[in-house]
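Postdoc handover notes: sequence design on the structure in folder B. Input tokens:
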């Protein structure tokens, strides 16, 4: 076991960064840079599991890299890289396909959600996607994987794959990682149109999510139009039970300001959404406006972004190479 904490996490470079990604994962990645050795990557191979527009993919990778740096990921302190630049991810994923059980993967709720009624027409990659995710994590012997609640099951599957591989081949190679989920409602930021489904880049309604690139007016408008109920905010968190939209907005407020749900309600109890929504829009603008400004700066210099990513990929490749070689040796394929 590595004695040091090592953090690995990824994000798909599609659809731009939204508030769910930011509160559920990225801002926690930023904080973890002070505590651990961190590797963060653009999961572009994962993006191939659904329809791809080849012209857009490369641009999306740069755009997401710029968004991560603008949000506070520091490529000097953390290793920031592009998954497809490192063939070891794909190679290890194939080795692990021999370890992962069909039944385990078939239980993944994200596969069920994404394939929906169209399982037969879904790509094979969409089904085996969590095995590639396991390879991403195990290649670097991550101890902690900061993700939103929706990815917890994939990290638990990674643990099962690590333990089975070590047992089957009688090695002490893979480190079973811990999912690291944020507290409060940041772990699961919900759609602004429906408090029962998560905020997601695939939701057809633009009004359901807030993007890092939204203007201050767009942010205010999306919050103003967010679905709510007619009741005032309660004094006690239990009073939010059965009110998913109210709970979501209070949770977002607390995740942005760093306050607990109790503290937020302490200030707004008895007030209606007519008062709460402008206050929420204000704290969101306060969070997002400076990040957006920095994003514009990085966008202007794609060559510098490419250089930073190439540097990160070289460092990641070096860290992962010994693990892949040991995995080959463990299964009897000398390296
Ligand atoms: P992705 O690209 O869908 O999301 C990136 C991160 O954002 C979190 N997230 C949310 N958190 C709270 N509320 C939401 N509404 C919300 N929406 C997204 C996700 O949990 C995630 O942490 N499979 C991963 C990418 C991946 C990965 C990995 C992650 C590939 N390999 C290895 C960790 C380790 C994904 O599609 O995330």
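Designed sequence:
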């Amino acid at each position: 076991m590595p004695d040091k904490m090592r953090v690995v996490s990824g994000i798909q470079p599609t659809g731009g960064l939204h508030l769910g990604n930011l509160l559920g994962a990225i801002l926690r990645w930023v904080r973890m840079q002070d505590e651990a050795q961190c590797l963060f990557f653009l999961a572009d191979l994962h993006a191939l599991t659904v329809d791809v527009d080849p012209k857009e993919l490369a641009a999306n990778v740069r755009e997401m890299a710029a968004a991560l740096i603008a949000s506070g990921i520091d490529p000097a302190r953390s290793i920031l890289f592009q998954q497809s630049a490192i063939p070891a991810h794909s190679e290890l994923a194939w080795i692990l396909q021999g370890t992962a059980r069909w039944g385990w993967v078939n239980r993944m709720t994200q596969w069920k959600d994404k394939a929906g009624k169209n399982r037969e027409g879904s790509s094979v990659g969409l089904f085996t996607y969590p095995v590639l995710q396991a390879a991403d994590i195990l290649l670097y012997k991550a101890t902690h994987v900061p993700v939103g609640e929706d990815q917890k099951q994939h990290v638990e599957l990674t643990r099962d794959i690590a333990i089975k591989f070590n047992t089957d081949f009688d090695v002490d190679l893979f480190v079973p990682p811990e999912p690291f989920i944020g507290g409060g409602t940041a772990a699961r930021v919900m759609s602004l149109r429906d408090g029962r489904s998560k905020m997601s880049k695939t939701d057809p309604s633009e009004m359901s999510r807030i993007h890092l690139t939204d203007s201050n007016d767009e942010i205010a408008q999306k919050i103003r139009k967010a679905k709510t109920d007619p009741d005032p905010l309660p004094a006690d968190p239990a009073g939010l039970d059965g009110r998913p939209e109210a709970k979501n907005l209070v949770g977002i407020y607390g995740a942005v300001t760093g306050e607990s749900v109790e503290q937020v309600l302490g200030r707004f109890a008895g007030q209606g959404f007519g008062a709460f929504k402008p206050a929420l829009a204000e704290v969101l603008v306060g969070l997002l406006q400076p990040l957006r400004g920095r994003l514009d700066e990085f966008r202007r210099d794609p060559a510098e972004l490419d250089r930073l990513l190439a540097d990160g990929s070289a460092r990641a490749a070096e860290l992962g190479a010994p693990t892949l070689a040991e995995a080959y040796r463990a299964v009897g394929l000398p390296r």
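Context for whoever picks this up: Residues 65 and 219 are 22 Å apart (CA to CA). Don't rerun without checking with the PI first.
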